[in-house]
Specification:
This protein is α/β, with parallel strands linked by helices. The strands form 3 sheets. Strands 2-8-7-6-5-3-4 form a 7-stranded mixed sheet, with helices on both faces. It has a 3-stranded antiparallel sheet with strand order 9-12-11. The longest helix has 18 residues.
Length: 367
């Protein structure tokens, strides 16, 4: 009865931990990838006002013009990107589904730096593509030599995520220029997932779309404005790709939630510097708390850190952490290796400190 393609998709390891969290009493929860602050008050008011004004019907599939203009100005101001073709999507996840269906034929290879966000592998399999993983351990940097060695005649798309979930690594302009060099050599389309663009702790956080024209940029409001349940994102890139994604959205998501689109216009006017600085401080707290007992890279963006398990496999160490009431995610959810684990520091400082204490104790337990 069930289609064979579903055998290629595992139940999300992240969701399994979320389900476990509901059954535990007051866990030290460092697993959830969503901000610990609420949607800004003026954005909530804008949503309510638009609901009460009757803006609850379908919008045009591509999204309302006001939000198109807001996204265009936002990308030009913050990313140096001149976005001519825009589609408003049902979150970045919805945009990814559309993009993979539009871009990847059966047998096409999708180049994916490892570690990676969980959807990339499973969507590639779902549409009949073949994931082509590029090992970036131990420092999680994507080097053009490694990328070039991974490309074959069947490689069609390269997926980038910067700042990255799960590692927090953010690519420099020099690194992206090296990637663009290889992409040009092989005429690759680059799908650049930039959902964490507002959480960048470097002096400069460049967009691949400002360097390489054949880039499909994905962004959204879930992380920057804590609008995870509102399902609002956007895509911009080559005109033919956006046109096909728009066509497919007509027969799938139809449109992004109408009230969220109108509130998104207000959200784009909300300053985010305070949130970025608050999460930079959380980054420093978790990194400084773990670096003496764990092999760990300092995150440069997003709100994740990806330490190496000090003993055992990722699953074994995470199981022991959960026994001690700390919820973290095994690294093999995000990787072809089973050596690391992901921490989300999108949590209150006291929760982070409690987690640091338990994890350091576990790290020394088997030495």
């Amino acid at each position: 009865m069930i289609a064979r393609r579903m055998r290629l998709i595992d139940s999300s390891g992240i969701r399994k931990v979320f389900d476990l969290a509901r059954s535990m009493k007051n866990p030290i929860n460092l697993s959830i990838g969503q901000p610990d602050f609420d949607v800004p008050e003026n954005v909530k008011r804008a949503a309510i006002e638009n609901i009460m004004a009757g803006r609850n019907r379908y919008t045009v599939t591509q999204g309302i013009p006001e939000l198109h203009e807001g996204v265009r100005e936002h990308l030009k101001r913050t990313r140096g990107v001149d976005a001519q073709n825009i589609l408003i999507t049902s979150g970045v996840s919805g945009g990814l589904v559309l993009a993979f269906l539009v871009l990847v034929d059966e047998g096409d290879e999708v180049a994916i730096p490892d570690p990676y966000f969980v959807m990339y592998k499973h969507l590639t399999n779902l549409v009949g593509g073949r994931p082509r993983f590029i090992d970036t351990y131990p420092d999680f940097r994507l080097r053009k030599e490694a990328l070039r060695a991974a490309i074959t005649s069947r490689t069609k798309v390269l997926v980038l995520n910067s700042p990255c979930n799960p590692t927090g690594i953010t690519y420099t302009r020099e690194e992206l220029e090296g990637v663009a060099e290889v992409a040009r050599e092989h005429d690759l389309l680059v799908l650049s997932d930039e959902i964490y663009d507002c959480f960048c702790y470097l002096d400069n956080c460049p967009s691949m779309a400002s360097i390489y024209p054949k880039t499909l940029l994905m962004g959204g409001f879930s992380k920057s404005h804590a609008m995870t349940g509102w399902r609002l994102g956007y895509a911009t890139g080559p005109a033919d790709v956006i046109a096909e994604m728009t066509k497919l959205q007509q027969y799938s998501f139809v449109c992004a939630p109408s009230f969220a689109q109108y509130a998104g216009v207000t959200a784009l006017e909300y300053p985010l510097d305070g949130a970025c600085e608050a999460y930079r401080a959380k980054r420093d707290l978790i990194y400084n708390g773990l670096k003496d007992n764990f092999d760990v890279q300092k995150p440069e963006g997003a709100f994740y850190i990806f330490p190496k398990a000090p003993w055992g496999t990722d699953q074994e160490f995470v199981a022991e952490a959960i026994k001690n009431n700390v919820l973290i995610i095994p690294g093999s959810v995000f990787s072809e290796r089973a050596t690391h684990f992901r921490i989300s520091y999108a949590a209150p400082d006291n929760t982070i400190k409690q987690g640091i204490d338990v994890l350091n104790r576990l790290a020394s337990h088997r030495r």
